[in-house]
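Two folds, back to back.
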Amino acid sequence: MQLLLMLLDDMFFSAIPAVGFALVFNVPKRVLKYCAILGMLGHGLRTLLVYFDMPLIFATFIGAGLIGFIGVHLSHRYLAHPKVFTVAAVIPMIPGVYAYKAMIAIVQINHYGPSEQLFSQMIDYFIKTGFILSALVFGLALPGLLFYRQRPVV
């Protein structure tokens, strides 16, 4: 019961930035609900997988892949580009906290001087940020690579 409440809470609060960024990107109003649903499903799946001890990077890849596949399906159904549905939906999975902590480590290195601990912390957070962003990119690109790949003419 506690897992279900945590998951519903996570999904509800991930729909808010998805819709907010969809509004910023001028997504048509009839599509906003799908952006919210995709944001909820992708982030909810990632949270569920992390809860069951899957590493965050792989869980992010699978969540972004789910968003990508459903976005391609919706794009065929509503005759729109898949990015209309998917770009705003992955925004809640952007690793902002890791990027922020990496920048704070850089500021502390500048202020206090170089130390092995701060440098190690900075590198760790930058690598986590890079890998999570890469998982988002590859997860979103996966359906396009599978469905829209150009085959060479023989």
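---
second:
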Amino acid sequence: MSENKSGKPLFYDPSERRIRSFVTRTGRVSNAQGRALEELGPKFMLPYAKQTLDLAAAFGRTAPTVLEIGFGMGETSAKIAALMPEKNFIGVEVHTPGVGSYLKLAGEGNLDNVRIIQHDAVEVLNNMIAPGALAGVHVFFPDPWHKARHNKRRLIQGPLVQLLSSRLAVGGYIHCATDWEDYAIQMLEVLGAEPTLKNTSTDPSGYAPRPDYRPTTKFENRGLRLGHGVWDLVFEKTA
């Protein structure tokens, strides 16, 4: 288990007595999602284990690997994986309906460069991903916990960013996106405070233009039409 300078595990939640990066939600698994879990799970899913994952063996090839935390229903993830077949993509998600949905999309698209781990992302990072193994990390529209008293539950915090950076190769990147301005401000502060990362944006705001590989979702497009903002942040590992 990774530790910070104080000797405490990274991203430790004392109230839960364990590391966690999510809040459990319930959801109904549709028939199509259930079939995908049963039929496609053996092909695309990797079991969680407290041992370093052999990426080349998991994908059957050696290629730059990008890890995504919380892929929702997988629509964006599937589009990105189809757009960049030269890269490997590991999606980490705890909610079964979303896993089933992504499996269905991966099967329909024959996305051999996709693997899924249904587990807490922090434990996956700590126990399965070797330091310097990743080419990138995606965190798109994480729960904003918009009430001030709940802000401490937000995913993007210093200890997690430190852990993410430790798993990136030099030159790798962290790409976050949010449609909550307050969270965007926090992300910019937290990512900017990590000494091993450099903001790639040249805009005075510090926010990056949406990279071409990140498609907009129906929800995002609706918000943009209503004048709501979306903020992308892209930071590069420098040391």
